[in-house]
Fold this sequence. Notes:
The structure is a single chain. This protein is α+β, with helices and mostly antiparallel strands and about 240 residues long. It has one domain (about 1-240): Beta-lactamase (3-Layer(aba) Sandwich), CATH 3.40.710. Helix content is about 35%, strand content about 25%. Strand 2 and strand 3 form a beta hairpin. Helix 1 runs antiparallel to helix 7, helix 2 crosses helix 4 and helix 3 (about 85-95) crosses helix 4. It is globular. About 45% of the residues are buried.
Amino acid sequence: MLVGLVPTGAASRDQAAAWKPGMRAAIAYASHRRGEIAFAVRTRSRSWGWRHAVPFRSASVVKAMLLASYLNQRSVRGRALRGDELRLLSPMILWSDNDAASRVFAIVGTGGLRLVAYRSNMRHFTPVEGSWSASEITAADQTRLFLRLPRLFPRRHRRYAMHLLDSIIPGQRWGIARVRPHGWKLYFKGGWTEDPRWIDHQAALLTRGSRAVSIAILTEGSGSHAYGRETLRGIAARLLAGLR
């Protein structure tokens, strides 16, 4: 289903308002790819989606929420980060370290994730006790999260957190990262796993000056990571066409 929401503010105040994602091309492409696929795009005044409210298992995409939750703890948000915290949070984002994510999840719990979801105006996020990677997400909710992401980090740690999401290691910069429009900054997190089915997800924020676009693409059951990552790239290239 193709969704275009009524703008929430004057279009003249949204410098990206004249641009629209290539939804028809992306849907046509996704309809012929293996597996289950959903995606969404959001600007400050409009949103679009295809199967955007269908739930998927999060895999490592949820690590962006874990980062926001940890940095917003009362004991953390107002002070400098310690060395042991930097050695915990940086690997969790930069190369998606699962052990680090499990340690952060043990600290913030499902309550911490729920608070981030609430502040992001998520509609369908469902965390799972004992397993951060089994959290239930939707493409629409991920675009809500990523469009608001800079404001979700406390001011003291905002630059650090956004730097992490801007600095994912080269070996994990597939999909959206391969088709980033020229002149746009990209902050993103991916998620992937073979168990129980092949999952390849990405959610991202693109910014240029005061303009901002968030995008989320979720895939499951593609049969291989190579195929799933090509699906991410193909959909992102079509959605972001013309964003200059």
